[in-house]
Amino acid sequence: MKVLVTGIAGFIGSRLGEHLIANHHEVVGVDSFVPYYDRTVKERNLDRLRELPGFAFHELDLRTEGIDDVIAPCDAVVHLAAMPGLTKSWADVDLYSSCNIVGTARVLDACERNQTGRLVHISTSSVYGRMATGDETSPLQPISPYGVTKLAAEHLVQSYVSERSVEAVVLRYYSVYGPRQRPDMAYHLFSEALLDGDPITVYGDGQQSRSNTFVDDCVHGTLQALLGATPGETYNIGGGEAISVLEAIEVLADAAGVDPVIEFKEARSGDQRITKADFSKAARTFDYEPRVGPDAGLRAQFAWHQQRRQR
Ligand SMILES: NC(=O)c1ccc[n+]([C@@H]2O[C@H](COP(=O)([O-])OP(=O)(O)OC[C@H]3O[C@@H](n4cnc5c(N)ncnc54)[C@H](O)[C@@H]3O)[C@@H](O)[C@H]2O)c1
């Protein structure tokens, strides 16, 4: 299969591209290097992919540039490109709306025009709001502009499914971690602080818990969904075991061999309290099963932070 991956230069997109090629698919990648974080980090994410046969890259902005030529030869699309991260979404709603809503609408239009076989649209547990502990029928009550734009994008996808014959599925990821994690994300910041001997900042009491998804489980589940999900349906893709922020710091500090110094700050608005993925629908439909638990996953991420300093 030839698969278009939008947001290929990002944390998850670059890993997904590698996973698809390892599974004998061709990958066409698109990214505009939105300066949410440093372009050099995203270029490094692409290093391995650029060496692989069966990979082509197009630098373009989905909000403004035509993608018909890129999408036409593809059998399927995984649409990851978006402005992620909820903190900044309070400060730049325009950027979040345009990337997450307008960008998605333009991908959907192009899928319709080119009769693309299948679209896997990537959404987030943030659409559920403060508590993300139930199944896909749980109330949708986002509490950040990020969550609101991602929910709007889901609704757009469903309108194209029902009114424009686009064959699409929606995956709601639960906070993803592992090698290449985005520089604004908690485990990335904790690991770098431990390596620098700096204090770790924790927002709130540190008891908030996450059933984080190790990136390899996430990309494996995405490929399974591409091949086996039911059109028009929505699936949670998460990790199995929940872990609190303080427990995660304990594992990372143990990997670093240091006693962490923690500075507590007031909880941030929009932060989720508990996420515990109910992924039973994905398990039933396409055998999704997370394989990497938090202890092994956090140690793998910390090892990546150590290794990249040695390069
Ligand atoms: N990382 C997580 O924990 C997590 C959790 C839930 C959902 N998600 C979703 O997964 C997807 C990928 O997240 P990530 O953590 O890899 O983020 P990322 O920022 O590392 O990757 C997203 C990529 O999309 C690109 N992009 C954004 N707008 C674009 C546009 N208009 N045109 C072309 N490219 C554009 C960016 O340049 C970036 O490289 C997002 O849709 C996000 O909402 C991520």
Tell me what the structure shows:
The protein is α/β, with parallel strands linked by helices and 311 residues long. It folds into 2 domains: 2-176 and 214-239 and 279-286, 3-Layer(aba) Sandwich (Rossmann fold), CATH 3.40.50; 186-208 and 241-275 and 294-310, UDP-galactose 4-epimerase, domain 1, CATH 3.90.25. The protein is 42% helix and 18% strand. The protein has a 7-stranded parallel sheet with strand order 3-2-1-4-5-7-12, with helices on both faces. α1 (11-22) packs parallel to α2 (39-50) and α4 (93-114) packs parallel to α5 (145-163). The radius of gyration is 19 Å and the shape is globular. The model has no long low-confidence stretch (mean pLDDT 96). The chain binds nicotinamide-adenine-dinucleotide.
The overall pLDDT, averaged over residues, is 96
- End-to-end Cα distance: 34 Å
Please identify the oligomeric state.
Answer: single chain
Rough outline: globular
Number of E-state strands:
15
What is the succession of H and E elements?
EHEHEHEHEEHEEHEEEHEEHEEHH
- CATH superfamily annotation of the largest domain: NAD(P)-binding Rossmann-like Domain
Low-pLDDT windows of residues = none
Structural class by sheet pairing and helices? alpha/beta
Please indicate the count of domains: 2
Please write out the topology:
Elements: E1 2-6, H1 11-22, E2 26-31, H2 39-50, E3 55-59, H3 68-71, E4 76-79, H4 93-114, E5 118-124, E6 131-132, H5 145-163, E7 168-173, E8 176-177, H6 186-196, E9 200-203, E10 209-210, E11 213-214, H7 215-228, E12 234-237, E13 243-244, H8 245-256, E14 262-265, E15 274-275, H9 280-286, H10 294-310
Parallel strand pairs: 1-2, 1-4, 2-3, 4-5, 5-7, 6-15, 7-12, 8-11, 9-14, 10-15
Antiparallel strand pairs: 10-13
Helix pairs in contact: 1-2, 1-7, 4-5, 6-8, 6-10, 8-10
